[in-house]
């Protein structure tokens, strides 16, 4: 007699309706299916039709239901009634909140718009928020990139017209050797995991370069536990070996890069180090066929890498000559760098040999005909199947810009950018520097700013300086201190505003920026700056407005809170004007929409921040937000998405526009039904590229024409990859005393040393301010796959994965200090100290310690219990980091940033360790701040449906 089995329904219905939208639990922007039961969110899964994740969804995405129902959600506009930082507020109506904001902001706009500093954190609508700030007229706007990965993005734009992640990705289907540099698990995690899976299926090799072997590096075939801050030196040693062996793609370099462009080599010339140009301003090369000068883009020209030109007593040589002279120097040999990098010379040689063998011994050949920008037709697409990916680990150093440049140069020397098997751009990239705006900062009371805030300077003439030479921006972006700060310096805003340097501000306006905790260096100091008062007892920073969806640490320091919705309750636009979700073979954009309405029973409720800005812009009579009769132009953000045109025919969304014959994609008139069409299409729209246009995009005539039809360019804009970045040389020339605009004397030496037009490596700047013997250990943070910035560690599901964080120590230091897992260590930097629990990790660079970032929380924040593990066993390394470097006796305090871009140098941190007694909880301890929302119940429980 058989065993009786119960009759179980193994797949019960979880919903009575499914609505498709876009995830917001990290920056991947995956497609999700939100299951509703009786109008409430019951379950979230991946959308299999979506181009980003194809149905894959990580723990963060699945836990979105807990983010939507989080007890930390704000419920109404709030006005501070207690001291700043106390968390004491009273609820007010939306009309009162908006009127208060107008009362504060209108006088600023009418008299001195720069007195408003408007900075946003990890939002995904920066084309909109920057548009609002530009219409207000303040120069003081930027987003979070300056303390994230601006080095990577900016180095990529100046070198090749794009960089990793949102700009491009590996050719997953053809790559045979993949190298990751400094990549944690939070950025682009689903696509990378899917890509790594495809590589493993095909037997492709993965090399992980990271001091820490976690996540992606844990599954790498070869892990390189490099010393932090030396990636650039390691990369240049690889370049040295490739040049020495002759394993570079000379044809690619001659055709598609500025390696053959002629450079003025006369030290006495005012144009020393600049390109030889014709009367149209086009860089000159020598044509191999004629031996004569020619513009780089002349039809049928074949640039010569070896020629030289002498005219009027001045010798001009190709960039390739300068590269060979520099990188064949013995100081870049594996033996010269192995001790500093922590990588044996033999291993460096082996990796270089592997790169060469795969790139040149096993190329990818596609039989696809294509025509280049010089009019030459090619019968095949030949590629080098080596690809790279890098992020914050190489970017967040004070030498990060040049390190990122070196990595881009390595790809280009191999001929593995925009070729089969290599790195591929995602539309609307590639975009050369010339296709981007320059920064604007001229203010006039009652008027918009004279152009976009952020951009890419081509030389000193584009710096954001006032007539007296002082910074025009509160963060000192685009100044001699950090000329190419394309994303601003958010980490310097509060410090500069508190110091009144370069001037005082009246209102600090923050959106999703947790500057009182994990999004700032010098965390205790920033909290003190936010609460500091002057001799009259007034706050030094007079007013602070915050918008957030949750009761974060920063919310407690605001004077006025404009509560945001959760991502399932509002419209958002993932735009080709901003941060799209494209793939190399197709452009794409997407929306979020209110799959459920905002619901805060018994309270005034919450509103999407972008819609609030539409309302606030109209009340302030900002020209971009009012009609000719003075009435409100956009009822809400959905109205803006539908009707706004950045220029005729181009709006936030490229799909379902109106053309002469009906619906069209790319350029077209606004369509009243556009959002409904996106919703019916699953929340996204893709625009595919023809196979003959899929590779060689910067030089492919078919791609350039398609890009014009989509509105990415006004006309075809083919360009050369810039191995030698001329704008950097222009700043060097100024530092050498040439040109009309001159830097301060104290900055000349640093600019000459760091702003080299060819990639270089120099030690992190903190090495010149701190004693490496006193502080011998590098201290890093990484973001875990299950968390993203602050958001995840208030999430009831995700807290079970990472509810606390130890400091991971390598074997050497565990043994030296006689430590066991769970013991406590005091971690000391030149700025401060923390006392935290530790754990052993063998797969770690021997002079590096690390922890997960953003796990530690301040007591009282995020509706967590004051004794929650995040507040007692969790911690931040931020307490050890200052926004300024230690004094070194020259009377100056230098920013703890990259001197070229202003990127926050989070990963330059050096420490020493001491064994400690158990203090009971992680130190430092801050008193529990008050919160405008009550603490969460011990158990979260609710019922969806019957």
UniProtKB/TrEMBL annotation:
GO cellular component: cell envelope
Cofactor: [4Fe-4S] cluster
This protein's name: Formate dehydrogenase
Residue ranges constituting the 4Fe-4S Mo/W bis-MGD-type domain according to the UniProt record: 16-72
Keywords: 4Fe-4S, Iron, Iron-sulfur, Metal-binding, Oxidoreductase
Record-linked SMART domains: Molybdop_Fe4S4
PANTHER family named among the record's database cross-references: DMSO REDUCTASE CHAIN A (PTHR43598:SF5), TUNGSTEN-CONTAINING FORMYLMETHANOFURAN DEHYDROGENASE 2 SUBUNIT B (PTHR43598)
Pfam families: Molybdop_Fe4S4 (PF04879), Molybdopterin (PF00384)
Gene3D superfamilies assigned: 2.40.40.20, 3.30.200.210, 3.40.50.740, Dimethylsulfoxide Reductase, domain 2
Family statement: Belongs to the prokaryotic molybdopterin-containing oxidoreductase family.
Main subcellular location of this protein, as a coarse class: other
Stretch list, region Disordered: 922-946
Single GO MF annotation: oxidoreductase activity
Cellular compartments annotated: Cell envelope
Organism: Thalassococcus profundi
């Amino acid at each position: 007699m058989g065993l009786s089995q119960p009759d179980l329904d193994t797949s019960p219905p979880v919903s009575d309706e499914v609505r498709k939208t876009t995830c917001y639990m990290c920056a991947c922007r995956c497609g999700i299916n939100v299951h509703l039961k009786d109008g409430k969110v019951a379950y979230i899964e991946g959308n299999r039709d979506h181009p980003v994740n194809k149905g894959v969804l990580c723990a963060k995405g699945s836990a979105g239901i807990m983010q939507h129902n989080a007890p930390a959600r704000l419920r109404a506009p709030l006005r501070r009634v207690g001291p700043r930082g106390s968390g004491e507020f009273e609820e007010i109506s939306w009309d009162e909140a908006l009127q208060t904001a107008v009362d504060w902001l209108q006088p600023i706009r009418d008299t001195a718009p720069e007195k408003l500093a408007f900075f946003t954190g990890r939002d995904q609508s920066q084309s909109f928020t920057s548009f609002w700030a530009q219409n207000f007229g303040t120069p003081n706007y930027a987003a979070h990139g300056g303390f994230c990965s601006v080095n990577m993005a900016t180095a990529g734009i100046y070198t090749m017209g794009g960089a990793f992640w949102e700009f491009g990705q590996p050719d997953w289907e053809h790559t045979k050797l993949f190298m990751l540099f400094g990549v944690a698990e939070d950025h682009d995690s689903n696509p990378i995991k899917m890509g790594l899976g495809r590589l493993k299926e095909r037997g492709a090799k993965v090399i992980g370069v990271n001091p820490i072997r976690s996540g992606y590096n844990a599954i790498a075939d070869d892990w390189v536990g490099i010393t932090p801050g030396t990636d650039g030196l390691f990369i240049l040693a690889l370049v040295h070996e490739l040049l020495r062996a002759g394993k570079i793609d000379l044809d690619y370099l001659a055709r598609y890069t500025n390696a053959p462009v002629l450079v003025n080599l006369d030290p006495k010339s005012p144009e020393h180090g600049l390109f030889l140009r014709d009367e149209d301003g086009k860089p000159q090369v020598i044509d191999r066929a004629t031996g004569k000068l020619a513009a780089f883009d002349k039809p049928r020209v074949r640039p010569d890498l070896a020629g030289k030109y002498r005219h009027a007593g001045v010798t001009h040589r190709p960039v390739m000559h300068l590269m060979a002279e520099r990188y064949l120097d013995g100081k870049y040999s594996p033996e010269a760098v192995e001790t500093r990098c922590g990588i044996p010379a033999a291993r460096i040689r082996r990796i270089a040999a592997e790169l060469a063998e795969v790139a040149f011994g096993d190329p990818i050949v596609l039989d696809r005909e294509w025509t280049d920008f010089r009019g030459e037709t090619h019968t095949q697409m030949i590629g080098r199947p080596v690809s790279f990916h890098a992020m914050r680990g190489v970017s967040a150093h004070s030498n990060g810009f040049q390190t990122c440049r070196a990595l881009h140069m390595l790809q280009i020397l191999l001929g593995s950018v925009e070729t089969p098997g290599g790195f591929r751009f995602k539309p609307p990239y590639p975009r050369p520097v010339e296709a981007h705006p320059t920064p604007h900062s001229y203010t006039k009371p009652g008027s918009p700013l004279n152009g976009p805030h952020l951009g890419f300077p081509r030389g000193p003439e584009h710096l954001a300086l006032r007539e007296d030479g002082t910074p025009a921006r509160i963060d000192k972006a685009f100044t001699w201190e950090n000329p190419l700060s394309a994303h601003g310096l958010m980490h310097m805003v509060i410090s500069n505003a508190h110091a009144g340097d370069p001037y005082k501000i009246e209102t600090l306006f923050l959106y999703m920026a947790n500057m009182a905790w994990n999004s700032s260096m010098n965390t205790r100091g920033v909290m003190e700056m936010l609460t500091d008062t002057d001799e009259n007892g007034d706050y030094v920073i007079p007013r602070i407005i915050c918008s957030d969806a949750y009761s974060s640490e920063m919310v407690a320091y605001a004077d006025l809170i404009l509560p945001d919705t959760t991502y399932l309750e509002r419209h958002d636009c993932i735009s080709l004007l901003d941060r799209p979700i494209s793939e190399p073979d197709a452009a794409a954009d997407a929306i979020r929409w209110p799959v459920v309405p905002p619901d805060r029973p018994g309270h005034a409720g919450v509103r999407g921040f972008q819609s609030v800005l539409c309302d606030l812009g109209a009340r302030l009579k900002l020209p971009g937000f009012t009609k000719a009769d003075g009435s409100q132009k956009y009822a809400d953000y959905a109205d803006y998405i539908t009707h706004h045109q950045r220029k005729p025919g181009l709006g936030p969304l490229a799909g379902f526009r109106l053309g002469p014959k009906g619906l069209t994609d790319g350029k077209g008139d606004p369509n009243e039904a556009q959002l409904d069409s996106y919703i019916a299409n699953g929340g996204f729209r893709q625009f595919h590229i023809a196979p003959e246009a899929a590779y060689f995009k910067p030089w492919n005539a078919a791609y350039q024409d398609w890009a014009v039809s989509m509105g990415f360019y006004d006309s075809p804009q083919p360009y050369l990859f810039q191995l030698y970045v001329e704008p950097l040389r222009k700043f060097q020339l100024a530092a050498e005393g040439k040109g009309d605009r001159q830097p301060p004397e104290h900055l000349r030496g640093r600019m000459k040393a760091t702003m080299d037009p060819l990639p270089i490596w120099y030690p992190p700047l903190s090495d010149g301010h701190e004693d490496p013997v006193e502080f011998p250990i590098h201290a890093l943070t990484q973001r875990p796959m299950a968390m993203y910035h602050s958001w995840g560690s208030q999430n009831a599901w995700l807290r079970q994965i990472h509810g606390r964080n130890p400091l991971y120590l390598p074997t050497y230091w565990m043994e030296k200090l006689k430590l066991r897992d769970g013991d406590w260590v005091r971690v000391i930097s030149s700025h401060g100290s923390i006392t935290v629990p530790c754990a052993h990790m063998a797969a770690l660079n021997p002079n590096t310690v690390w922890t997960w970032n953003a796990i530690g929380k301040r007591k009282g924040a995020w509706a967590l219990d004051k004794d929650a593990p995040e507040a007692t066993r969790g911690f931040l390394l931020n307490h050890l980091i200052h926004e300024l470097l230690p004094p070194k006796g020259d009377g100056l305090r230098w920013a703890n940033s990259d001197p070229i871009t202003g990127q926050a140098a989070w990963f330059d941190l050096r420490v020493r360790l001491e064994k400690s007694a158990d203090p009971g909880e992680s130190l430092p301890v801050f008193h529990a701040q008050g919160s405008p929302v009550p603490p969460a119940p011990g158990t979260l429980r609710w019922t969806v449906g019957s």
